[in-house]
Amino acid sequence: MTPAPIAVALDAPDLETAARWAGLVTPHVSTVKVGLELYLRYGPDVIASVRGASGVRVFLDLKLHDIPNTVSGAAKAVARLRPAILTVHASGGPAMIKAAVEAAPHTQIAAVTVLTSLSEADLGRIGIAGAADDAVRRLAAMSVEAGVTALVCSPNEVSAVRAEVGPGITLITPGVRPPGTDSQDQARVATPEQAMADGADLLVIGRPITGSPDPGAAAAAIAASLRRTSHA
Ligand code: C5P
Known about the structure:
Blueprint: E1 4-9, H1 15-25, E2 29-35, H2 36-42, H3 45-51, E3 57-64, H4 68-79, E4 85-89, H5 94-103, E5 108-112, H6 120-126, H7 132-145, E6 150-152, H8 158-165, E7 170-173, H9 192-197, E8 202-205, H10 207-210, H11 215-231
Parallel strand pairs: 1-2, 1-8, 2-3, 3-4, 4-5, 5-6, 6-7, 7-8
Helix pairs in contact: 1-3, 1-11, 4-5, 7-8
Cytidine-5'-monophosphate binds next to strand 8.
C-alpha cells in the first residue's frame, strides 16, 4: 500500500524516542519531520537515526532565514544529508529563496509563508499591514517566482494559496487534527480529510500520532481514513 501523504512531526525529547516513533509510523506515512530542537540538540546524525533502514523521506524543518550567501552555505551543508524537504522563511526574500533552491538541487525547498502563531496585530507590529491572508498569498507567489516547488501554510489558507499558485506546487499544512482529538496549542485546525479536499498535498501531524499510546496504530488509522475519503 502506498504510504499516506503525512509528515509525522518527530518533536521528541530525545533521539531514541524520535527514532522509535519514526520506526513505528514509517510503514504508514511517506515522511517524517525533524524540527529545529532535535536537529540542534543532536546534529546531522539525527537524520540517519530517524531514517533508519526504511529510507523514509525526511523533512528537515529548519526554517532558514538569513542573507542569501549564508542561507546558501547552510542549505549546502544540510543538502549532503539528502533531506527530501528543507524549509526557509519566505520573508527572507527572493534572492535568499533562490540561493537555497540552487544550493540544494536534490532537495525540495519549501517556503514558510506566515507563521500561524502570529496574529494580525503581531504582523502589523512587524510591518506587514493588512489581512494575514493577503500576506500569505503575496509571499506564496513571490516564493514560487523565486523557484520553490513547495509552500507551508495553514489549512485555512490552503485553498487561497492553491488558487494563487496553481496545481504544480506542493502545499504542506500543519495544524491538522483528526476529528475528536485535542487541538492543543494549534489555534486554527482542520481535519486531515478537509485539508486534503482543500488542496493540501502533505499533512504535518505531530501529537495526535506521537502522543498516542500506539503511534503506529494512530498513523495507520489516519492513513486509512485518508484512503477512504480519496476513494469515495
Ligand atoms: O503536534 P502538532 O501536530 O501540532 O505538530 C505540528 C508540527 O508542525 C510541529 O512540529 C510544529 O512546529 C510545526 N508547525 C506548525 N505550524 C506552523 C509551522 C510548523 O505547527 N505554522
